[in-house]
């Protein structure tokens, strides 16, 4: 998420792992329908993200149409990862607000992400326990099918 630029200045690119963009920088002006196709999000969701402050500074054409950039696509990929963690929307919006406020919010942003990371690790442990129970039951049923038919006491 943090990228070292050639000037050795740290910037928060707010991206997940780098992903190929459909267009190179400078030619990256996407319509809302193109972003829908690329991200799988709905136009309604994209507009909602903008309305609640999860996305900001979406460029507009001279006719008022939204024009998304590669940076916007990167942000949406990051938001998608946050959604997968189960982070509440209010916390995602708070993170976006802190990001817009600048570098002096690094510590608070880090705390939000660390809290979410703890929640994810707890959920992973719970899911691993659940997986073990499922594996046990699957093994039981697989073993029952392989076992010779059992006869009752009257046979």
Q: Your description of this structure?
A:
The protein has 155 residues and is mainly alpha-helical. Helix content is 57%, strand content 6%. The chain is built from five helices and four strands. It has helices at 32-39, 43-52, 70-85, 89-101, 106-146; strands at 2-4, 10-12, 59-60, 66-67. Strand 1 (2-4) and strand 2 (10-12) form a beta hairpin. The protein is elongated, with a radius of gyration of 23 Å. The relative contact order is 0.10. Residues 1-10 have low confidence and may be disordered.
As residue ranges, the low-confidence spans are 1-10
Helix share, percent: 55-70%
Query: In angstroms, what separates the terminal alpha carbons?
Result: 68 Å
Instruction: Give the overall silhouette.
Output: elongated
Q: Biggest β-sheet, characterized?
A: 2 strands, antiparallel
Structural class: mainly alpha
Side-by-side strand order of the widest sheet: 1-2
Put simply, the count of helices is: 5
Rounded to an integer, what's the Rg over CA atoms? Answer: 23 Å
Which whole number gives the mean pLDDT?
87
Order of helices and strands: EEHHEEHHH
Estimate the strand proportion: 5-15%
What's the number of extended β-strand segments?
Answer: 4
Topology:
Layout lengths: L1 E3 L5 E3 L19 H8 L3 H10 L6 E2 L5 E2 L2 H16 L3 H13 L4 H41 L9
Helix pairs in contact: 4-5
How would you summarize this macromolecular structure in one to three sentences?
This protein has 155 residues and is mainly α. Helix content is 57%, strand content 6%.
């Amino acid at each position: 998420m943090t990228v070292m630029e050639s000037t050795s200045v740290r910037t928060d690119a707010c991206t997940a792992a780098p992903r190929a963009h459909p267009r190179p920088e400078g030619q990256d002006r996407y319509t809302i329908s193109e972003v829908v196709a690329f991200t799988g999000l709905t136009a309604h969701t994209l507009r909602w993200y903008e309305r609640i402050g999860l996305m900001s500074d979406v460029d507009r054409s001279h006719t008022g149409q939204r024009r998304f950039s590669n940076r916007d696509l990167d942000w949406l990929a990051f938001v998608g990862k946050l959604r997968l963690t189960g982070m509440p929307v209010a916390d995602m919006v708070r993170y976006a607000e802190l990001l817009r406020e600048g570098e002096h919010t690094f510590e608070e942003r880090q705390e939000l992400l660390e809290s979410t990371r703890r929640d994810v690790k707890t959920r992973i442990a719970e899911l691993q326990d659940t997986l073990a129970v499922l594996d046990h039951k699957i093994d039981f049923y697989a073993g029952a099918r392989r076992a010779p038919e059992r006869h009752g006491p009257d046979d």
